């Protein structure tokens, strides 16, 4: 993540959705590490001609140290993520509300998941105090898309992309995180929610898988829905 106070907003291209169906103005894509949320964020942005709001986790200066020694570096890692996401959303809030068409690869409501998994009790209490103060009045998405996959699939995707800072990640941490996401979204009702089974679909390279999801999303923009696609041959 970047320490800049300016939201990272990248221009989108290649609009593939024409005016018949209007997508939600502010979409957040979520899911555990390796599930493909940033990939889907970029593809949706291109389809809708929206701009992206990206968390850029690799810019967090504490993250690599956290993966190597979680107990020592959990608190600064977590606070850096929190403050950076808040800055990005504040920049979004301060813009013209009628021009805010954005897709983010994070939902700030799920930030406490990581804190609960990694922080000692006194650190967690400090984090919760800060969190409660800084998230007031932040804009909420019009739709959240939650990508789900098994821990084995997440580990396979993490290993396949081969990022140096992710090499120390242990399977036990991903399993705990994956379970925490499942519990969080089981009870989540703050916004419309689309839960996507991403276990066997290829959103990075599979145009068929992506366009099937896109069509489903455009017809399910309110309420709570679960998309469980069959993989294409």
TrEMBL record:
**Which residues are ATP-binding?**
31-39, 157-161
Any one Pfam family match given in the protein's UniProt record, by short name: dNK
The residues that cross the membrane are none
Q: Where is the active site?
A: 105
As one GO molecular function, the record gives: ATP binding
What InterPro entries does the record tag this protein with? DCK/DGK, Deoxyribonucleoside_kinase, DNK_dom, P-loop_NTPase
Source organism's superkingdom? Bacteria
Query: Which keywords describe this protein according to UniProt?
Result: ATP-binding, Kinase, Nucleotide-binding, Transferase
Q: Where is the Deoxynucleoside kinase domain?
A: 27-215
Q: Which GO terms describe its cellular component?
A: cytoplasm
In its UniProt entry, what is this protein called? Deoxynucleoside kinase
């Amino acid at each position: 993540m970047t320490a800049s106070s300016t939201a990272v907003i990248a221009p989108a291209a290649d609009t593939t959705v024409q005016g018949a169906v209007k997508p939600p103005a502010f979409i957040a894509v979520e899911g555990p590490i390796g599930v493909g949320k940033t990939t889907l964020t970029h593809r949706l942005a291109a389809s809708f001609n929206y701009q992206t709001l990206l968390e850029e986790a690799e810019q967090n200066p504490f993250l690599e140290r956290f993966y190597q020694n979680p107990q020592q570096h959990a608190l600064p890692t977590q606070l850096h993520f929190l403050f950076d996401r808040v800055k990005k959303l504040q920049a979004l809030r301060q813009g013209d509300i009628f021009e805010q068409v954005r897709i983010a690869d994070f939902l700030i409501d799920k930030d406490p998941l990581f804190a609960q998994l990694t922080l000692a009790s006194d650190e967690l209490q400090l984090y919760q105090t800060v969190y409660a103060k800084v998230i007031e009045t932040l804009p909420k998405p019009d739709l959240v898309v939650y990508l789900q996959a098994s821990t084995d699939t997440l580990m396979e995707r993490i290993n396949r992309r081969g990022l140096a800072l992710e090499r120390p990640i242990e399977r036990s941490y991903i399993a705990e995180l994956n379970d925490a996401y499942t519990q969080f979204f089981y009870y989540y009702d703050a916004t419309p929610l689309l839960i996507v089974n991403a276990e066997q679909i290829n959103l990075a390279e599979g145009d068929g898988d992506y366009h099937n999801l896109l069509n489903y999303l455009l017809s399910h923009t309110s309420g709570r829905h679960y998309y469980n696609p069959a993989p294409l041959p």
